Amino acid sequence: MSSNHLKELEEESIYIMREVAAQFERPALLFSGGKDSITLVHLARKAFYPAKFPFPLVHIDTGHNFPETLTFRDQLVGKIGAQLIVRYVQDSINQKKATEETGKYASRNSLQTVTLLDTIEEFKFDACIGGARRDEEKARAKERIFSVRDEFGSWEPKRQRPELWGHLNGMINYGENVRCFPISNWTELDVWNYIKQEKLNLPSIYFTHQREVLIRDGQIFPYSEFLNMDGEEISTQDVRFRTVGDMTCTAAVSSTAGTLDDIISEIKSSRISERGARMDDKRSEAAMEKRKLAGYF
Amino acid sequence: MKLLKFSTAGSVDDGKSTLIGRLLYDTGSLTEDQLEAVEAASKRKGFDYLDLSLLTDGLSAEREQGITIDVAHIYFATANRKFIIADTPGHVEYTRNMVTGASNSRLSIILIDARKGVIEQTQRHFFIANLLQIPEIVVAINKMDLVDYQQAKFNAIKEAFLQFTQGFPNFKQNITFIPISSLKGDNVVNESENMPWYKGKSLLHYLENVDVNSYVNKKDARFPVQYVIRPHSEEFHDYRGYAGQVISGAFSVGEEVTVLPSQQKSKVKQVVTFDGDLEIAETNSCVTLLLEDEVDITRGNMLVKTANQPQIDKEITADICWMDTQLLVQGGKYLIEHSHNLIKAMVREVDYIVHTSTLKKDTETKTIKLNDIARVKIKTAQPLFFDAYEQNQANGSFILINEQTKNTVAAGIIV
Q: For residue A169, what is the domain's CATH number?
């Protein structure tokens, strides 16, 4: 397969990155250590070469990360000489700004919003670059490339600005900020094909490995000390992760895919969508929309 | 593999969602959990069929009201091509959403219900596709199963469509008619056995093979500077690179360029990308240009060939689609965003408002309301470097921004 469409997607993303740098005073790139944000970092490097990209990476750390992701993050930051800002959900909990969820489905996924908004406030970021893609979820399919948020971080779908041709309007009033999504038009498969084409490194958990897991609601959950157990049995299986989030809400897939080629053919033949493994989206039909209204990524 | 962005317009009644659902389903682009979610939601709503609009109507308000309100983007791919659908609502109160969806599309699908034929909505959809000069238009005559797959019905609608389009400007748009049934699957992905009289290909076959590069302007070299790259490092001392996208034409190393508005001349010294230097910066490529001479260049300046320059003027005539609930009044002041310049502008004169289905021009009304399409004269505080939209879409389009609310209030096409 020729990579013509990847070139076109790459050009669009580079264009958006440069618009962010030109239109905003204090942008930041939200970095989770997942494949989408790793792709964003690579695109940012391309957009401003030979200069370093003119914004810091910001990681909102839930404290429930896969250790492999953190190791990878620190290696990447060291290699490219980027500035990294880390803020912790645990601190928001200690400051009583966020309350830990209880019960067997307890997760810190939605608590990230509190810490994110505080971080935006602390550094006066006027634009946050994120790796959200429109193919991920139906509420995200309605999202703009420049998504204006009020001072509470809320997404107002009915007040969205029309985006015409290549004209991106990043003008905001004081206190507002913008979420910018350079890979809006990429699909999961595009990201994987691009990672292969560009020979990007990824955290090891994207590839098959043996892990202690438990089965909950038909999904394979990674066992960790952060998980509230409900009498489930723990077993060791060959798994990999298709998406990487908080350890308490990211399910694994049974897989022996050990290379990028294996992963690409696995995704091509998969009958389950990427976010099918995210318990945070399964809470209700409008779960993502609700979180976005509250200021989520 | 190439990328094709196309737009659809219509409401649930037209079978638009069914068509998109059919394209996704028959190309194997729907996953089990997505289908399960649709099944469960359809059942909850008491439907005895799969309501595929639940896939595309991503907002709670849309699902509650059973209508498409906003543009949704839908992605699928076949072995030959990747597709991005800008799915837009069809009613007149959503004209601005249709314009938005169409502005980034190279092809537009206009859906007609075979039982109803050409109706006001059809005319509006064509009007917008014509206004934005979308090079390829597919008229999909749907629900052929409900008219017994009659050739006469298809021909009559085709005739009526061509009849009403006669009064429109001809922007070399190709119009293709395909008889389909989204519900039964005729001619959507697979060719129909119910319409042996139709000798053309299926809709998907057409989408996979249509030439998507025919509209590219390779003649007029235009490089609006987006961002100035200055590494401030030992290795790249005194480096000034001009980052941007070549919106039309191309630039080669060694060629003379003129910088607008300063009219200074220099030569292209280097075409820089992360993946190595290039000899030529082709149309649509995002590159960084270095020049031979030290010239003062900032965002919004434009590099062009000395012998081929755009128009430079503080006065433009344009067709605009008004997108704000606040009215536009003659003499109103806004910001215009054109090729990375943000400049104060005044709508000096409203020539007329055009009715999107009758083409009637109202020259009396001087205030423009949400979803109106109007011909206006705009005066800008600084000169713009522009081409007519017909020659150059990227350099012939603009948006207007309300300086107080900061909202995008109009889409503009320079005539």
A: 3.40.50.620
